[in-house]
Amino acid sequence: MFFSRLTTNPVWRSIHDMQHEVNRLFDRWGHSPFNVGEFPAVNLWEENDALVIEAELPGLELQDLEIFVTGHNQFTIKGERKAPNVDKGVPHRQERAFGKFTRTVTLPFAVDENAVEATFEHGVLRVRLPKHEAAKPRKIEIKA
What we know:
The chain is built from 2 helices and 7 strands. The protein has about 140 residues and is of the alpha+beta class.
């Protein structure tokens, strides 16, 4: 309800649109010029009345992972990938990053955050985000 009141005000709508465009730019080019890509990599697609997000999270445990939906159209994955414990060896190369991470993706439409379903199997997070009623198309009766 609060979000819909903000978007009816032209000033707040302009700010929201600008934030959406900046988020889209960062989603496309990454948050840092040093990153080849964002972690975790995600796939996002639409199925009927929902969005589905899949993220590859190798080496993570369920207790090291959190997901959030904010503002009806922002999806965030937050967690920590722990470094392997190398007691009896000398590392020569480390290409996989470790530590805390946060990844936020702007969704193409509003979702119902109260009906989100998530599973985590074999290092793959799969989240189903049903469309919010406001985002579903409505058939309009034409009167003659």
